[in-house]
Amino acid sequence: MNRKLRRSRRIGAGITGAAPALVIAALLLLWELIVQLAGIPLYVLPAPSDMLKTFVLEFPTLAYHAYVTVMEALVGMAISFVIGILIGVLIDAMPTFRKCIYPILVVTQTVPVIVLAPIFIIYMGFGYAPKILTVVLMCFFPIVVSFSDGLGEMDEGYLNLVRTYGGSRLQLYRIVKIPAAMISLLSGLKVAATYSISGAVVGEWIASQSGLGYYLIRAKNGYMLDKVFACVLMIILLSLLMNGLVKLFGYAVLPSAGRSGRRKQA
Q1: Which domain holds residue 63?
Q2: Does 201 lie in the same domain as 119?
Q3: String of b and e for 179-212 (b: at least 16 CB within 10 Å)?
Q4: What is the DSSP string of 62-76?
Q5: Are 140 and 258 within one domain?
Q6: Are residues 12 and 59 in the same domain?
Q7: Which DSSP category does 40 fall into?
Q8: What's the rounded Cα separation, in Å, for the pair 95 and 29?
Q9: Residue pLDDT, tens place only, 119-178
Q10: 198, 213: one domain
Q11: Residues 206, 90: one domain?
Q12: Both 32 and 50 in a single domain?
């Protein structure tokens, strides 16, 4: 009886896991049928088959521009990670600092990045710096908020135990608080990783000589919508890849979290 129950649960979990893929496949099929039956021109709306065909043909060019965008995203994510850790610890350790800095952090997220990107270019030139800064501006906030919240939710009993044994404030964070907040930090990193590629592309829209944002603008100006959709597909794949890298990082630093997640699915 237990075997049958476990088998039925596995089947149900498999169906649930495949549901998003089935929905996406159905939507793409509907899109293909509408374009083919209605005879919609390529410059108005390409069919998914046209998009995939262009993606394959343009892959070498897309891969070159994707390399530039990914490098900008990785550097921006690394800077965001360091800034997020430092500010998160300061917010948790110093309530006055939290009251002063938190409203400023919120304000940085209310200004559209597309508005700030030209300002960054005016002051920083047309190189990689303004694109990386755009990524940092989009990515550091979810890291700071998630990490600081994770530090603040620590059980006081564990903290008092470390204090009882004469642990310093630095040891309190190193031994107890930061390891306990890693799951929250990883949640923020997943959100930031998804934003990182978009942030780099937004920076490239304004002024660049390479990158997916540059490719996207050139294709759009030439009304080559099949190339536009192929570039969007590349951006989606890279965003998923960045999210997957964060998950792998999470399994590396918290292997127990990965095992517990697999046990829950089982």
Answers
A1: 42-265
A2: yes
A3: ebbbebbbbbbbbbbbbbbbbbbbbbbbbbeebb
A4: HHHHHHHHHHHHHHH
A5: yes
A6: no
A7: -
A8: 54
A9: 888 888 778 888 898 899 888 889 998 998 888 777 666 666 666 766 666 777 777 778
A10: yes
A11: yes
A12: no
Q: Is the same domain home to 87 and 216?
A: yes
| Domain match, 95 and 77 both | yes
The answer to whether the CB of 91 falls within 8 A of the CB of 146 is: no
Range 227-232 contact pairs with CB under 8 angstroms and sequence separation of 24 or more = 227/54, 227/58, 229/46, 229/50, 229/51, 229/54, 230/51, 230/52, 230/54, 230/55, 230/58, 230/62, 231/62
**Phi, psi for 231 (deg, rounded to 5):** -65, -40
List, in order, residues 6 or more apart from 252 with CB less than 8 Å away: none
Residues 6+ apart with CB under 8 A from 82: none
CB 65 within 8 A of CB 211: yes
Q: What is the pLDDT of residues 197-241, one digit of tens each?
A: 988 898 888 777 888 988 998 888 888 888 999 999 999 999 999
Other beta carbons within 10 Å of 236:
11
Tokens at residue 11, please? Answer: 């089947």
**Domains held by the chain: number:** 2
